[in-house]
Write a structure and sequence with these properties.
Blueprint lengths: L11 E5 L26 H12 L5 E5 L9 H9 L4 E6 L4 H11 L3 E5 L5 H8 L5 H14 L3 E8 L7 H13 L3 E6 L6 H8 L3 H10 L3 E6 L5 E6 L2 E6 L13 E4 L4 E3 L8 E2 L1 H5 L3 H12 L13
Parallel strand pairs: 1-2, 1-10, 2-3, 3-4, 4-5, 5-6, 6-9
Antiparallel strand pairs: 7-8, 8-9, 10-11, 11-12
Length: about 300
């Protein structure tokens, strides 16, 4: 197992597999990656990296983008990672989920995280910059992947006057319950496109916590390894509340690093410098790859740091 200089183990890797997206969400942070990278790791590359990292203690692999389901070989990416024995999850807007559900479940996907900030079609279109009908497609995909045995987590960014009233929270909880899914409410962050609309749409996570309590929710404790996230239960649904980086504990217990679609390893979402793993990946150089990873671990900060460039 590998550790950084603050004693935190390296247990999780987040793969940013592309930069294209079919949505234009008002708060998008692009996963800290500049769009149109142009050079992508192959499905076989992901298998090699995952095998090496699994050998030193990495157990969880999360696939994200862009929109990862826009990759034509996304099922092969999942399959190559899953064959290492690690837990593979995928974050998506869900629009193409119905199309991919069968192949993703067969490839070994364990869980899908889908962003649904509201079940109101008009508000959904406004937030995501998508035409009418997209929300219906997402919901069809969610129920389809659930029938395939893949677990579901719903992500909702907290947005003032969009999903910060009792009815909106209750509807999201009801949707999660119907899917036997967990639910995350995420405080808006002033990064990426979120900078432009932060003052207009920011609502503290405490507003949602208050509503959950008023609806009969009970606190279950804190996820200390993840920013001390409060966890509630309501209507049989586990609900996590994620405060933005102004939370003093934000990232202090982080065990994750990120690999961009062009092979750069990042210690944090906006971290600079990045360590280039591409030469070692293409050469299938295990020793070189592990040395580069140790170099990256030595650069990790004790807490979240917002760099001036991404």
């Amino acid at each position: 197992m590998l550790f950084d200089r603050y004693g935190r183990p390296f247990l999780k890797l987040r793969y940013v597999v592309n930069d294209e997206c079919n949505y234009n969400c008002v708060f998008c942070h692009f996963e800290g990656q500049t769009r149109r990278q142009g050079v992508y790791l192959t499905a076989e590359d992901y298998g090699f990296v995952s095998t090496v990292f699994k050998s030193v203690g990495v157990t969880d692999f999360k696939i994200t983008g862009g929109e990862p389901l826009l990759r034509r070989d996304i099922d092969l990416v999942v399959a190559n990672i899953a064959k290492t024995g690690g837990v593979v999850t995928l974050t998506t807007n869900g629009f193409l989920l119905e199309k991919w559900a069968g192949r993703l479940s067969a490839a070994g996907l364990r869980r899908v995280n889908v962003s649904i900030h509201t079940v109101d079609p008009e508000k959904y279109s406004k937030i995501t910059g998508t035409p009418p009908g997209f929300l219906r497609a997402v919901l069809r995909g969610l129920y389809e992947i659930k029938t395939r045995g893949v677990s579901v987590k719903i992500n909702a960014v907290v947005l003032r006057d969009i999903n910060t009233d009792r009815r909106s929270v209750k509807e999201l909880v009801k949707l999660a319950a119907s899917l036997d899914a967990s639910l995350q409410f995420i405080e808006l962050m002033p990064t990426g496109q979120g900078v432009q609309i932060f003052n207009q749409l920011y609502e503290p996570i405490e507003t949602v916590a208050k509503i959950i309590t008023e609806l009969g929710g009970r606190p279950l404790g804190l996820r200390r390894e993840l920013h001390n996230r409060p966890i509630y239960t309501l209507g049989g649904v586990a609900i996590e509340l994620i405060k933005n980086y102004n939370n003093p504990a934000f990232c202090s217990g982080c065990t994750t690093m990120r690999l961009t679609s062009d092979g750069k390893l990042k210690t944090c979402i906006y971290a600079e410098p990045r360590v280039d793993l591409m030469p070692y990946i293409k050469a299938r150089d295990v020793e070189g790859l592990l040395y580069a990873v140790k170099t990256a671990l030595a650069q990790r900060e004790p807490r979240f740091k917002l760099y001036s460039s991404s």
